[in-house]
Amino acid sequence: MSSSAATATADLLLVDADVVTLDSARPRASAVAVSRGVVVDVGGQEVVERWRGARTEVVALGGAALTPGWVDGHSHPVGSLTMSAGADLTGVRSLEQLRERLAQLARESTDGWVQGWGLVPDVFPGGVPRADLVDDALGGADGAKAFLRLADVHSALVSTSLLREAGIDGPRRFPSTAEVVCDPDGTPTGFLLEWDAMALADRLAPTLPDAQLRSRLRSLLDDMAAQGLVGAQVMDGDAASLDLLDRLEEDGDLPLRLRVAPFCMPGVDDDDVAQLVAWQERTGRRWRVAGVKLMIDGTVDGGTAWLDHPDANGQSTASFWRDPQAYARAVRALDAAGVPTVTHAIGDGGVRFVLDVLEPLGPPAPLDGPPGRRAAHRLEHLETLPDDLVARIGASGLTASVQPTHCTHFVAADGSDNWSVRLGPERAGRGWRVRDLLDAGALVVLGSDWPVADFDARAIMAAAQLRRPVEDDDAPPVGPEQATSAEEALAGFTRAPALAAGDASRGVIRVGAAADLTAVGADPTTAPPADLAAAPVLLTVVGGTPVHRTL
């Protein structure tokens, strides 16, 4: 029972619910009272009797499950406005299909541009994209200018016409190890690896007016809330994206909370790091800057991951930073300023280097202690890990962030996909070791990496348990020994992201906790994964205010 005065009334009462509290002191309940954005009571019918007043909103959930609100632990909602520009190519599965789709898009284009996203490298011979495989479908070397992002969003295929327009006529050197891929004679193939290289062409692409940007972002965030998300940990940002969030809040409250970690890219100097530290003060009503995002490597599919040993193509052998020690210096400076870091680390070599940098920095400062970093440093993706790295992560106190649907939707159990072929059976067999990380004692946050994969938490929790797409009963699981339990999957979207952010007041339903809540038509801890994935989200509550409801 709450210690509040008996005459107090609640703003919101959620009743007739199957409350999954994730609080060991009271795991289950049937009613929750909320006042001023905070849970003030949890229990049964007595909660209603204590807290109902003339102005209390009472919502009967009809026996639906009520859980702590779901938080996507790795997402790019603002960045996705660019990353998912143009046509959705996620369903294209052959070069012939791609050529047909591009020809259609070129015919329909009114400005001479074709943009697309979500393209998997497997559609190209040997998994290697080339402009000469699609140029004629776009109208030839003088045809439509095409910028096609691959599914990993770390690479793009651009048409010969766009190469010419952008003045890309040979190899380039960047602060990072990004690459304009060229034939042996120095002629660009149209394949651009990593951010610096993609920017050469992407800077020419048509952009949306501010009003449309705000509208698209608002619609996307509304969709996220409608699928039960009360928050997202946003893994990119710059001055323009932070300003966009400011302008969006001028139109009204965001439907979910955003915790933003702006980018720190190769080539930064002391002034850039100081700017990142200063940005930690930026905040809105439902968004705030909290952390900094770095990348130590790229992707296995693009050959830009950092592996202990080369992949099957002789690639993925180096850091994203030409001087990895520059990464280390930036991280240490941020840590000294009390700023938690988030590092994209996919290959075992990259993970090993990041651990060498982060382990000596120690754990975060206690929430009630002297000033300092309040959240643990994080490692993102962790796609292939040998046993020694699993053990080190578990013992380090660092947060491990993994996206289950990257495994279940982009990798084939028979090893025939580009990712598996590049790594070979041994390293591919060490993919997405969620079970082993949990058993080693790591705090494991789950997420989508939207727009790389869909942000539906129900499907992601199901995939974490099944190790295959929940929508495909016939698909064999990928590494089924790495499956999570239902309770662990729910924790990965609730308690784990809260603790990773250094916030003990979220991810649990108990007196004093923030009233960020999700009501769904199936209990995530007991329902078969397929039933959870199909269950409706009935109510999403942020700070005690319903932001989505079907009741």
Q: What does this entry look like structurally?
A:
This protein is an alpha/beta fold. The protein is built from 18 helices and 25 strands. Helix 7 links the parallel strand 15 and strand 16. Helix 6 crosses helix 7. The N terminus is likely disordered.
How many discrete structural domains?
Answer: 2
Q: Architecture of the largest domain, CATH level 2? A: Alpha-Beta Barrel
Total DSSP helices: 18
Query: What's the alpha carbon Rg, rounded to whole Å?
Result: 24 Å
Morphology:
globular
Strands ordered across the widest β-sheet: 3-2-7-23-24-25
CATH superfamily of the largest domain: Metal-dependent hydrolases
Specify the CATH class of the largest domain. Alpha Beta
Q: Please state roughly what percent of the residues sit in beta strands, choosing from under 5%, 5-15%, 15-25%, 25-35%, 35-45% or over 45%.
A: 15-25%
**What is the makeup of the main sheet?**
6 strands, mixed
What is the CATH topology assignment of the largest domain?
A: TIM Barrel
Helix content: 25-40%
Summarize the helices and strands and which ones pair or pack.
Layout: E1 12-15, E2 18-20, E3 28-29, E4 31-35, E5 38-43, H1 45-51, E6 57-60, E7 65-68, E8 70-75, H2 80-83, E9 87-88, H3 95-108, E10 113-119, E11 145-150, E12 155-158, H4 160-166, E13 179-182, E14 188-193, H5 195-202, H6 210-226, E15 229-234, H7 239-250, E16 257-260, H8 270-279, E17 287-289, E18 292-295, H9 324-336, E19 341-345, H10 348-358, E20 378-381, H11 387-396, E21 399-402, H12 404-410, H13 418-428, H14 434-439, E22 443-446, H15 457-466, H16 486-492, H17 495-500, E23 517-520, H18 529-534, E24 537-542, E25 545-549
Parallel strand pairs: 1-6, 2-7, 8-15, 9-10, 10-11, 15-16, 16-17, 18-19, 19-20, 20-21, 21-22
Antiparallel strand pairs: 1-4, 2-3, 4-5, 7-23, 11-12, 12-14, 13-14, 23-24, 24-25
